[in-house]
């Protein structure tokens, strides 16, 4: 069973170098919609262990990465494939809608 783990500005290279696609949630402690998305991401990490990694990055504590991906609203989820962002989801959505966006992006040809 896989779990959602944190990355930082210093460790973000693990996302870019991953052999499997990585969904990264940009979040903050003061963000209620981020708390709503958290159980959805936990479920996705468990259900897709081995085929999708799920990571979180605290935007307030890691401004460099947040700026470099032009994150302006929270939560923002970015799907990375082969180190490249291939899908961005802004806002809290039900699990089915997030899965639909992920599946569509993962089925597209590699960047």
UniProtKB/TrEMBL annotation:
Q: Which family does it belong to?
A: Belongs to the thioredoxin family.
Q: Where is the Thioredoxin domain?
A: 1-107
Entries under InterPro entries matching the protein: Thioredoxin (IPR005746), Thioredoxin-like_sf (IPR036249), Thioredoxin_CS (IPR017937), Thioredoxin_domain (IPR013766)
Mind listing the UniProt keywords for this protein, alphabetically? Disulfide bond, Electron transport, Redox-active center, Transport
Entries under PANTHER family matching the protein: GEO12009P1
Gene3D superfamilies assigned:
Glutaredoxin
Protein name per its UniProtKB record: Thioredoxin
Q: Which Pfam families match?
A: Thioredoxin
Against CDD domains, the record matches this protein to: TRX_family (cd02947)
Please state the gene responsible for encoding this protein. trxA
Q: Does the keyword Electron transport apply?
A: yes
């Amino acid at each position: 069973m896989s779990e959602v783990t944190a990355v930082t500005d210093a460790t973000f290279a693990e996302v870019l170098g991953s052999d499997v696609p990585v969904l990264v949630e940009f979040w903050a402690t003061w963000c209620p919609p981020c708390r709503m998305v958290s159980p959805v991401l936990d479920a996705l990490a468990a259900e897709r262990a081995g085929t999708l990694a799920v990571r979180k990055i605290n935007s307030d504590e890691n401004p460099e990465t947040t700026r470099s991906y032009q994150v302006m609203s929270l939560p923002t989820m970015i799907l990375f494939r082969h180190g490249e962002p291939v899908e961005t989801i802004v806002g809290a959505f039900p699990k089915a809608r997030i899965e639909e966006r992920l599946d569509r992006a993962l089925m597209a040809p590699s960047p």
